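S1.2 Input.
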Amino acid sequence: MARTRSEKYPMPPEGSWIRYQLDLRNIKYEAVGRQANRSVSMVSLVVKQVKHSKAVESVLANVLGYASYDELLAAARTQNKGGAA
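S1.3 Output.
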């Protein structure tokens, strides 16, 4: 199934990097949602930075190996500027 970008909620650079990291590890939104006890759509909206969910943010940070969601976003911003994280 192909992923599409929403015109209403385009993927920010940090979200694209997070999505890429999840894909590298073969981690699906469904798995993140299950661990956070949230819907797949909520996971998508958090990754797109449209909504916030502490539960989803915590699981994303955890599965990607970061201590916090803020640390994960900082790494995404560093990568998008061409630096190393």
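S1.4 Remarks. The radius of gyration is 12 Å.
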